[in-house]
Design goal:
By secondary structure, the chain is α+β, with helices and mostly antiparallel strands. Helix content is about 35%, strand content about 25%. It has twelve helices and 22 strands. Helix 9 links the parallel strand 17 and strand 18. About 35% of the residues are buried.
Amino acid sequence: MALSGSRSLKSKRPRPGSPLFQPSGTHVLQKLQAFLRAQYPSYGFQEVLTPTVYKKRLWETSGHWDNYKDDMFAVVGRGAQGGQDPGRQTGENEEYGLKPMNCPGHCLLFQSQKRSYKDLPIRYADFSPLHRNELSGALSGLTRLRRFHQDDGHIFCRHDQIMQEITETLRFVHLVYQTFNLGTYKLRLGTRPEHFVGSVDEWDKAETRLRLALDDSGRVYDINHGDGAFYGPKIDILLTDADGKDHQTATIQLDFQLPKRFALEYDTSVSNEKNMPILIHRAIVGSLERFTALLLESYSGRLPFWMSPYQLIILTVGEKANVRQRAEIMARQLGFPDARPGAQALKARKFMVDCDNSNQSLGKKIIDARKKGYSLYAVLGERNLEQPPGMQTLDVTLSSHPKEQDVQKVMEDFLQSQIQTSQSESSEGRIATRDAATSLTVQQCQELMTEIESRYL
C-alpha cells in the first residue's frame, strides 16, 4: 500500500498477512492510536495490556476453542502441566492459542478484584496485536490480515446501563468518523447465527436492546440476519471504498454469555446478593491497519497534516556547503522544537521534517516534494542566510493537502497576525511574501505547523 509516489507505509516483501511497517507507516498508526487515546478520558476508558498467548483451557472456558478454533493459531509450549513423553520437559505438549481477540483477558482483569454495583460501568481499552488464521485467499493488502492491531474495548455494566453505554459508543463512533471527514458510514445489525451459545430468549432480549439503541440514534440501519457473533448480536459500522466494496470498521457487540462462562459477578445493594454484569464489546475504528488503508484511499494518499509522516521538507538552492549545513540544522530545529533530554522529552512536540540537499534543480525538488505528498515545502538559499541566525528565514509554500482551502485559510490568518505583531516592532524579521511563498523564521514556521496540527487539519 503506497503512501504516495515512491514512499510506502509497509515493506513490499511478501509476508503471510503480517506487514512490516516502515517508519512512515508506524508514525501514521501511532498518530491514530494517540488520537483515540486522547478521547478515552471523555468516554471513561482505561487502557490495559494483556498477553498474546493463553493456555487452551482459557479458550475452552470462553467458548472460542469450540466455536472459533479454525480461525485461531494453536501453538505448543512448556507449561505447568503436560505430557511425560521421553525426552521432553514437563508441559512441552501443552496447547496454547494466540489470541484472536481481547475479551477473555479483560474478563480475567474484571475477575481479579471484588466488584460492587457502584464500580460499574468498568471500561477497558487495549491496542494489543491480534492474530487470526485467515485463509490465504481472503488476505488483501492492509484490509485483511492475520496479524493486526485493533482499538479494542470492553464495557462491564449493569442491565440498567446498557442503553446509555451503547448510545455513548455510537456517539464516540460519530465523533471519530466526523473528525476524519469520511462521509456517510453504514450501520448494520447482525442477529443470531446458526451456531451460537446461550438461550434463544437471551438472544432475543439482546437484539431488542441493540434495535432500541439504533432507533434512538435516528440513523438509518439495515439488518443482516444470522451475522451476529457466536456469543451475541452486534452493530457493525461499514465504510465503502472506491470500488464499492464495504469494509467493517467499528463494531458494538452485546454479550450475555462470556460473563456467565467466567462466572463474573458484582455485589448489589442488597446484602449478600450478587449479580452478573453485561459485557459490551466495542471497537471504534476496528483494525488500525484496515482503517489506515481506507484513510489513504479516501485522501488519495495525502493524509491530514496532523497525522502525515510528510509534513514539511526543506529544499536547498545551489550547492554551497553553508546552505546545506544550515538546512540540516533548521530541519532538526523544526522537527524537534522542544527537544530536551530526560523526562522533559515527554512534553516535547515533534514534527516530521525532512531535508533535500541533493544536486537536483529546485524545480525538480519541488516536483518530487509534491509527488511524495509533503504538506509544506520550504526553500532555503544564500539569500535567506543574509540575516543573523535567529532571523534567517525559509520561503514556505503549501504543497499538497486534503483540506487545502482550510489550511490556506489558517496560513492567511497566521500571516496576518504575524504582520500585525511585526508592525509594532523593528523592520527586522517582518513577514514577507514572495509569489505563493511566505517568508518565515524557524520559530514562526513552528508556530504555523502547531496551529495547523491543533485544528486536526
